[in-house]
Amino acid sequence: MAAIGEFVAPVRESEEGFSLQSSPLYFMYELGYAALNPSRAMADASRLLFKNPMNPMAHTTMGKSMAAAMELYERTTRRYGKPDWGLTETTVDGVRVPVHINPVWERPFCRLLHFERAFEHPPRRPQPRLVVVAPMSGHYATLLRGTVEAFLPSHDVYVTDWADAKTVPLTEGTFGLDDYVDYLISVFHRLGGDCHVLAVCQPAVPVLMAISRMEAEDDPYVPKSMILMGGPIDTREAPTAVNALAKDKGIDFFRRNVISQVPWPHSGAMRHVYPGFLQLTGFMSMNLDRHLKAHADLFRHLVAGDGDSAEKHREFYDEYLAVMDLDARFYLETVESVFITHALPTGQMLHRSMPVRTEAVRRCALMTVEGEKDDISGVGQTRAAHKLCPHLPDEKRAHYLQPGVGHYGVFNGSRFRSEIQPRIADFILTQEHQQASGQGNVTPFPRQSGI
């Protein structure tokens, strides 16, 4: 067996276990998208016509209404690509510092981006290295733009930039939960263990798995701390509607109804995936009335000439409507092990056929963060990680429940910037100080035979 963090030969796609019931969905979606191209182009041209100041109609209510209607049609029928990070500078010690985004590690399904700050003079304050593990759950890593922006003034930030599965050729094999854990371990090795890890939502489980496997092997490159935010460590605690759906339907339902094949001409053609457009349908349906109202408000803002409000709408939905496909193997394994069998909290989780022993965590400090109104990961689901790591001393653990915020507010927004981020930064600095002074030394966990 290969050492943890090493990559084995790609696993080829297999038709076994996938139903033909949902396979044509992606082809029909692409056909519909192509069929709408002419009308979308016409709508965009009409929008420009009715917004042209040389057109007398542009100054009438009817003309403004036509331009607004054409923009709404074009926006609701377009395909949204991966957004830009848009982070070109930050402020460190009161000085504006340019930021350059460079990939420093790469595999077929992920790149590690370094938000490198070009200092003219070394900063006065410590700048701990922070790896932000973005969720592989439909949206691009740019969804964490606000999270990264909040940490840039005080941390050396890295982010996992997951690839859209439809862009990964089938020759690269499939991508499962074991591969996710391998990727994380490889990233920690790349950084030499001199880092802290921030897992937002979905990656809380694989991050805890990766660090548990490293601790069990007494790996010298284990990160200094892990911060798990709104993650489904134990979905038996305060189960939400999302958890109940997975439990009630069972894994066969998802295998039959949401898995499809990527069509040509995408570079990942014939790969089995959970398509982004199906994920977006689920996202939108959870708060459909709110999204309909937001688009109705956009129409009124455009007619009234309220450019600021219209631009805020565009910025939000340009990000929200940009989705990516997930490899079917990773999606199904995650649903089954995290939401149906609860493999991690029950001690049944495996990585490369070896047990994941969370009780081995002794060196890597643990902080958990939850939102009081989180309707995705209920209160208590993330905090459960502390029960799974009983050998951590009190000075290496912390928990914070943020009042008045939902799932998104745990990692973004004003409450995150003013109340959550400072607590995380303080926890990281505390662990840096403890390890630098030798207070963080602990007895290694006994290694398991065969690892």
Automatic annotation (TrEMBL):
UniProt cross-references to InterPro entries, sorted A to Z: AB_hydrolase_fold, PHA/PHB_synthase, PHB_depo_C, PHB_depoly_PhaZ
Domain PHB de-polymerase C-terminal: 230-429
Stretch list, region Disordered: 432-451
Biased composition (Polar residues): 432-442
Superkingdom, natural source: Bacteria
NCBIfam families xref list: PHB_depoly_PhaZ
Descriptive protein name: Intracellular polyhydroxyalkanoate depolymerase
Organism: Azorhizobium caulinodans (strain ATCC 43989 / DSM 5975 / JCM 20966 / LMG 6465 / NBRC 14845 / NCIMB 13405 / ORS 571)
Lineage: Bacteria, Pseudomonadati, Pseudomonadota, Alphaproteobacteria, Hyphomicrobiales
